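Thread: Modeling a multi-component assembly for a lab meeting

Hi all, long-time lurker, first post. My supervisor asked me to bring a structural picture of a complex we are working on to next week's group meeting, and I have zero experience with this. I have the sequence lines for every component (1791 residues in total). Could someone generate the structure of the whole assembly? Inputs are pasted exactly as I received them:
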Amino acid sequence: MIKFIIRRLIQTIPVLIGVSIVVFGLMFLIPGDPAQIIAGESASQQQIEQMRERLGLNDPIPVQYWNFISNAVQGDLGSSIRSGRDVTSEIMLRFWTTVELALYSTILSVFLGLIAGVISATRHNTYIDSGIMLVALLGLSMPNFWLGLMLIKYFAVDFGMFSASGWGEFRQMVLPVITLGTSGAAVIARMTRSSMLEVIGQDYIRTARAKGVKEQIVIYRHALKNALIPVVTVVGLSFGSLLGGTVITEQVFAINGMGRLMIDAILARDFPIVQGTVLVVSLLFVLVNLLVDIAYRMLNKRIDLD
Amino acid sequence: AGNDTNESEDSTAGEEGTAGGTLIINQSSDAVSLDPHGSNDTPSSNVAYNIYEALVVQDQELNLLPGLATEWTQDEEDPTRWEFQLREGVTFHDGSDFNAEVVKANIDRILDEDVASPRSFLYDMIVEINVIDDYTVEFITEYPYAPLAANLAHNGGGMISKELIEADYAAMEEGREPGAVINEGPIGTGYFKFENWNPGQEINLTRNEDYWGENAKLDGVTFRVVSEPGTRLANLQTGDAHISHPIIPSDVGQVEAIDNLEVTRTPSVSLSYFGFNVEKEPFNDVKVRQAVSMAINKDDIINGVYDGAGIPAIGPLAPAVFGYSENAEPIPYDVDRAKELLAEAGYEDGFTTTLWTNDSPERTNAAVAVQAQLAEIGITVNIEVLEWGAYLEQTSNGEHDMFILGWSTVTGDGDYGMYALFHSSQHGTPGNRTFIDNAELDDLLDQARRSSDEQERLDLYEQAQEILIEEAPMLYIHHQEFLLGYRSEVQGLVQTPTDILKLNEVTIQ
Amino acid sequence: MKKELLKVENLKQYFPIKGGLLGRTVNHVKAVDDISFTIYEGETVSIVGESGCGKSTTGRAILRLDEPTAGKVEFDGEDLLSLNKSEMRKKRKDLQIIFQDPYASINPRQTVRQVLEEAMIIQKVLPKDKRGDRIRELMATVGLGAHQIDRFPHEFSGGQRQRVGIARALTVDPKLIICDEAVSALDVSIQAQVINLLKRLQREFQLTYLFISHDLGVVRHISDRVIVMYLGRIVEIADKKSLFTNPQHPYTKALLSAIPSTDPEKKKDRIILQGDVPSPINPPTGCRFHTRCPFATEKCKTDTPELRTTDFMKEGHQSACHYMEEIKAGTREPNYV
Amino acid sequence: MSTNSETILDVRNLQTSFFTSELEVKAVDGVSFKVPKGKTIGIVGESGSGKSITSLSILRLIQNPGKVVGGEVLFNGENILEKSEAQMRKIRGNDISMIFQEPMTSLNPVYTVGQQIGEAFQIHEKLGKKEAIKKSIDMLKLVGIPSPEKRVHQYPFELSGGMRQRVMIAMALACNPKLLIADEPTTALDVTIQAQILELMKDLQDRLGMSIIMITHDLGVVAETCDYVAVMYCGKVVEYASVKDLFNNPRHPYTVGLLNSLPRHDEDVEGELEIIPGSVPSPAEMPTGCRFAPRCAYASDICKELPQLEEDENGNQIRCWIYSEEWDGDPEVNVYEKRTT
Amino acid sequence: MSQEVNTPSTSSPPPVNPRLESWKTFFKKLRKNKAAMFGGILILFFIIVAIIGPYITPYSPNQVNYSMKLAPPSADHWFGTDHHGRDIFSRIIHGMKITLSIGFVSVFASAIIGTIIGIISGYYGKRTDAIIMRIMDVLLAFPGILLALAIVSVLGPSIENVIIAVAIFSIPVFARIVRGSTLSVRKLEYIDAVKALGASDFRIIFKHILPNVTSPLIVQTTLSIATAILTASGLSFIGLGAQPPSPEWGAMLSDGRSYLYQAGHVALFPGMMIVIVVLAFNIFGDGLRDALDPKMKA
Ligand SMILES: Nc1ncnc2c1ncn2[C@@H]1O[C@H](COP(=O)(O)OP(=O)(O)OP(=O)(O)O)[C@@H](O)[C@H]1O
Ligand SMILES: Nc1ncnc2c1ncn2[C@@H]1O[C@H](COP(=O)(O)OP(=O)(O)OP(=O)(O)O)[C@@H](O)[C@H]1O
Ligand SMILES: [Mg+2]
Ligand SMILES: [Mg+2]
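Re: Modeling a multi-component assembly
Sure thing. I ran the full set together rather than chain by chain. Output:
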C-alpha cells in the first residue's frame, strides 16, 4: 500500500505536466490578449506591443512554456500579469479558505446525505422516502446563487443570525457551507439510497438479522459499508469540484477563494495565475482521488489496487 | 427615503458630522493595482484617488482646480510648452518631499516602455519634462495639446513618492514586475494613507494626519470586494457596509423603500453605444446606419433596461464633458422614416445581422431590446454573447457587424471622449471599433486637441458632433447615471461624474 | 491406449496475506504447494481431503481463474499457462468447472435461461433456433422444471441453484469438467440422477472429470482414481478400490474411518485425530501431517516424504509416508494419549 | 413422538408463499413438526421442498416477495409469528440461531470473520470488542479452523468453502442458543471435520440442553446425529419418525426411494444409482392430492385426494394413503420391501 | 437409469423468444411501479409539449413589452412577465425543447462515454486504470470555463457545442463512479464463472459488470440532468449555448438573479420547471432501477 501511495504520488507528475501543457495550449488557442484586457477598451497598438514584450508574450509558445516550467520546477510560478504579485502568494492567500470551505461543505453534505439516503432506502417506496427524495432533488436543482441569496435574505438580513459575507468567523461560514453542502447532500442521499437498496436484499444482511443485530446496526454497519463505494466516489468528486469551482458561492458570499481567483484570471488571460491555480487544484484532485481509492480498499478488501 | 440626482452634492453642505469612524465601502471588484500608473479600472482609481494626488483636480462639474500644482500655463507663443507651479510643503506618507523632481520621475515612469503603463496614452504627447526649479516643472509636448491639464487631473497622473519609484525600479532589475513594490506599499500625498491590502478581499486606508490641506474626518476607509449585487445590498441593510458602490438599477426601488438607506444618482461622463462596423455591408451605407438609429426608442431602452438610470444620448459626449454641444440635433425616433431609408438603401425587406455583446447582463438586455425594436423594421438581429477577452480582441479586429460597448470620458474633455473613438488613426484596439474613417472629422479632432482657445475648441467639437450624428457610426444610447447606495448615517459623500468617491468630507453619524 | 488429458506438474498457488492498515503483504497462504498428477481421458479422478487443503484452488488454478504461482498445466498436450488470452478463451470450451458455491457463481441478474443461453452463445455451440430446446433439455436433465426457466437465482433453493451450475457446465459439451462439490447440496435422489447422468455422459462422450468432494460415498461410486490431499500436498493417490480397501497414509485412514454411517445403530471406531489442525500459512515442516499423526517420529518433523509405492500396493497406488511398511506390518504402534 | 418430553418448538401447519409476478409459489405448504428439548430432529427431503424456507420462516427472516401466510410457530409455548420485531431480535441469535446454507453470500464481504462472529458476543453478551475477538478465536478453534488467530482477521473471500461454513457454524453457536437450526451445515466439510463439528454440537447439546434442527442431505449425518427425522416433499412433511424407525422401517414410498438412491462408501456398486423416476411437479401443475403420487409406484385412485399426516402409536407420523383405512390399492403392498440398501 | 428424467419435459411450453420475454417482464415490472409510470408519463408529456407547445402558447416568447415589465403572475400571464415584459409561461414552453435537449443529450453522451471508460479502467486495472484515471483527473481538475472558451473559439457558438462542452465536463464523473463500482464487482465469483466459460472481456464488461453498476449510473445520470441545465446556462454567458433571447431555462433562471427580491417569479418558474423535469427523470430512474433489480417485487 505504501508502494501504491508512492506510485500514485509519482503519477501526479505526468498529470501536472499534462495539465500545464493543456492549459498553456488552450490559453493560446482562445482569443483575448492580456495586454489588451489590462488596457481595456482603448490602448494604442504600440502600448499593447510594449506590454506584450514586457510580459514575454512575443516569445514562441514552446519557449514560453519552457520558461514557465523551468521556473515552476524551482517552485517559482511567476507573477500575475495584472497585479504583478507573486502567484504562489496569491494562491496561498486563498488556499486555506477554499480548502476549509470545501471541507466543511463536504462534511455537511456527507452527514446529511448519508442519513437521508439511508432513511430513504429503509423506507423504500413510502411517503418518507418520497419526501426525502423530493427535498434532495429540490436541493440539487436549486442553483447556488438562488439558494445563497435566499439564505442571505432570511438568515442574514431578516433574522440577523449569520453574516452575509466574508469567511473566517463561524457567523460567516454557516451560510456558504449550507449553500455548497446542499447539492452535494442531495447527490449523496440519492446515491446512498440506491446503493443501499442493492445491498439490503443480500443474504449477509439476513445473517446479521439472524444474529439478533438491531435493525439500526444492520443498516448502518452491515449494509452501509457495503453500499458506500459509489457514495465515496461522489463524495470525492464533489469535494474535488468544490476545491476547483466554488466561484458562484464565493461570489455570493464575497469569499476570497481560489475559484474566483482562477476564473478572474482566466477572464483576464492572466496566464501565470491560471497555470498556478490549475496546478494546485489538479494536485488536490489527484490527492483526493488517491484518498478515494484508499477508501475503496478500506471498505472492501477485495478491491485490489496494486 | 429617496434621493434625487443632485442631493448628494448638497449633502456636502449638510450638517457637520462628528469626526471619526471607519467607512466601509463595498465595491464590485478588487483594485487591480494601487500603482496609479499601472491600472486602468474604476475600483483601482477609487482607492488610489485617496492615496495619491495629481497636479490638477476636477470638481463636481469637472472644472479643473489646483491640486499638487497651484497654477499652470500653456505658453502662448509655443503652445507645446506648459509650465506648472507646484505646491510647497507637501510631504509624502513616507516623509519625503514633493517637488519638481518627483513630478519628472513620475511622468518619466509612465512613459517608460519597460513599465508599459496602461495610462501612457494619456501622456504620450509629452516629449520632455524639465525641472525648472524645485517647485516649477516644464512639459514640452510633441504638438500643441490643449487637454493636457485635464489629462493630468486624471488619476493616472497621481504622484508617487520618488523613493518608492526608485525602489520599484530596483526590484525590476531583479526581475520583478513593474509596480510590484509600489503595490505592496503605495505612498502618495493624499489625505488617506495605505494601511494594508488583502488582495481579493479588502483594502484599508487610515487618515493621513500630516495632510497639507484639511485632514479627512474619517479615521479610515475600508474598500471591500463584494461582487454580488444582492450581497452588497444585504451588507448595506445589516450595517456591515456603509456604501454599496454601485447598486444595480433594479435594486433602486428596494433600497429607497428601506428606512435608513439612501440612493444617489450621479450623471456620468460615460456613453453606452451600439457600434456598426462601417467597413462591412450593410453598415457601410450611412442610410442603413441612420435607419437603425431612427428605429430605436432610446427612452424605452433606458426605462426598460436601465430602470431609468440615465439620459438619452444625442452624440458621443455627455453634457458634463467639455465640448458637449447643446445645439446638436438628434436623430429622431421615427420608424416610418427608418423603413424608407432602408428601402432607399436597397433593403426594403430588411436584412439579417449579428449583434455582439459581452457578458454583462445590462448590455445583453439592451441587445434584446434593440433586437426587438429592429425587428419592427424588418431587420433580424442575432445576438451573440462573447466573453470579454475574446470580445475585445475580435471587435478590434473588426470581425463584428454590430457590437455594444461603452466609453467613459474620464478626463472630462471632448478629446478623450471622441479622439480615440472616431479618429481614423485609432482603428481597432485604441478605441475606434466602428472603423469610421472620415477625413473631415479627423481634421476637426486634430485641430481641436491642438488649439488652446477654449471657444475654438468648443466650435470644432460642435462640428465634429454634427458629423458624428449625421454619419451615425454608432447608435448613441444613453449617458448612464451612477447609482450609489449608502446608509443614512453617512454624510458628506461626493461622487464625481467619473465615478470617483471623494471621501475627505465624509463623516459617519 | 490411455491418453493423458490433463497433466499437472509442480503446481503451486500462494496467496498473499495482507496485514496492517496499509495492507502490506505479511505472509502467504500456501494453498497449493507443489502438486503433480495426471488425468487420462475418459476417467474420473476425485480429490478428497481436509477442508481448506487446496482442492478448489487446484481447480481454479488449472482453469487459470487465478494465475498459479508456479507449475505447469498441460491439457491435451498443450501448455495452458502459455496460452494467450484469446487462445485460452477458446480452450475453455473443453474445460469446465462447476463451482462449489452455486449462488455466488451465478450472476444474480440473469435468469436461468439467460445463464444457459449465454454459455451457448459464448462458445457458439448451437444455432439460435435450437437453443431453446436444448435449454429445456438441460433443465430436465438436472431435474429442473420448464416452469423455472425464467427464474432468477435467488428464487431457487440451494440444491436447485447447484443444478443450474451443473447445467451450465454441461451446455458447452466440454471434455473435462472440474466438479467442485458439484452434488453436495442435492438430496440423494437428485444426486443419484446427476451422478448417473455424469457417468452416462462419460460413457457416451469420453468425458473426463476432476471430482472434488467430501462425500466419500459419492467418490467411491463415481471415481476411477482418488487423490487425497492434505494441506496443499498430495498424500496419497490410488485407484478407487485400492484406496478404499487398502489405504496407506494415516490421514487417509483417519478420513475413511470418519465417514458417517446410515445405520443409526452401528457404533463405529473412529480414528480421532489429535492435535491442532495446522494452517497453510505456516505449514509444518517435514511431513505436513506429523502434528496430528499417531505414528509421527522426529524424522517426520524434518524429512518430507515423497510419494512412493510399495510392493503391497497396487500399481499406480502411491502414498507419501515414511512408515507405510512398518505400519502395515504392525511394528509401529499408534501413540494415542 | 414422545409426548412426555418437553417440546421447545412446535411448528403447526406453517405456510409460506412467494408471490411472484405470475403466481403464488407455495414453498412451504402446511408443515408441522415438533422439536423436543435437547433433541435433534433432522429434516431431509427433496431439494427445493421447502426446508430452508421453513427454517427462515421460523426465524421470521423471509424476504419480499415471500410471506408467512399461515400457521403457528410455538417457541416455548409462545407464538413467534406474533412477536414484535424487538422481541424477535432478542430471540434471534440468542435463543434460536441459524446456520445458513450459502456460506459465501451469507457472510458480509466487508468484515473480517472475527468481526462477524464477535458481533454476536457484543450484542447478546455485551462484551467489548477485544474480548469479542478473543472469544471469536476460541470459537474458530472450536470448529477446527487452523491458526485461528490469523484467520480471525481474514475476510470471507480468503477462506475455503469449508472454512466459510465453519465460520457460519461458529457464529451460530456463539451464544449457546437453545435451538439451533442448521441448514446443511457440513456439506462443504470433509468427513473428519464433519465428525468434529457434529461432536461439538452433540457436546453442546449434552451440556446445555440445546435442541437442533438439522437440515441435511447426508443421510449418514442424519443417522448419526438425529433423534427424529422429518421427510419433506413439495412443501409438506410426508413422514416423521424416530431415526431408528426411519432407517429400519421407512414407510413412505418417497423415503424408501431416497434411501435407495444413496451411494455406498463401504462397498463398490457397479452400474447406476437407483433413482426416483419422474420429476417434481411445477407449482402450476401441483397435484391436488398426494404430491408424490405422479412418481409413486403404488399410486392408486385415492391418491388423487390429499392424505393427512397421521400419527401412530409410537408418535411416528405418515402422510400416505397406504397406511389408512381407506387405502384402495394393493392391500398387500409393502413399501419397505423395495428397499435395496 | 430411468429415461423419463432425461428426456425433455413432456409439457414443453410454446416456444417464446427469451429476450422478448425478459423485456416483457422488465416492462411489466416497470408498469407496475406507479412512481416510474408517473415519471415516464411526465417525461412523455414534456416531450409532447416540447414539440407542439410552441404552436399553442398565448404569446410569442420574444415579444418585448416594457410596459408589462416584471408583472407578477396573473390571469393574462400565468407565470408573470420578465424584465423585458415577456410572458414567462410562453417562454418556458418554447424553451422546453432546447432545455431538454441540452440536459438530455449532453448527459447521455457523457454517461455512455464515461461508462465505457470507467468500466474499462476498473476491469483491466493496473496500468490501464492508472493511465485512464490520471487523464480523468486532469479533466476533472481542469477549469471548465477554459475548455468552454476553447470550444467556442474553435467550433463557434452553438447549442451543439454547449452540449459537447457539458458532456466533456461530465465524462470523468461517470467514469469514476462506474470504475468504483466495477472495482467492487470484478472479483466476484460469477465473473469467474463466465470467464471459465470463455467469455470475452467485452461480454463480461457489458453483460455482467455493466448491469451491476447500473444503479449508481442511473442515479448519476438522472441527477446530472439538473447540473447540465445549470451548467449550460452558465456557459451561455461566454457565448456557448443558447444566446439571448432564447428561452432556455437555465438562462431564464440566471436572468432572474437580478430580480430575486423584487420579482422572485422571474427565477422561480424556470427553476421550478427544472425541478419538475429533474424530478420526473429521477422518479423514472428509480423505477428503472427497481425494475432491473431481480429481487424487487414485481
Ligand atoms: N424468492 C423466491 N421466489 C420464488 N420461489 C422461491 C423463492 N425462494 C424459494 N423459492 C422456492 O421455494 C421452494 C423451497 O425452497 P427451499 O430453499 O426451502 O428449498 P430446500 O428444501 O431448502 O432445498 P435445498 O435442499 O435445495 O436447499 C423452492 O422450490 C424454491 O424454488
Ligand atoms: N483469495 C484468497 N486469498 C487468500 N487465501 C485464499 C484465497 N483463496 C483461498 N485461500 C486459502 O487457500 C487455502 C485453500 O483453499 P481452497 O478453497 O482451495 O480449499 P478447499 O480444499 O477447496 O477447501 P473446502 O473443502 O473447504 O472448500 C485456504 O487456506 C484458503 O484460506
Ligand atoms: Mg473448496
Ligand atoms: Mg435449502
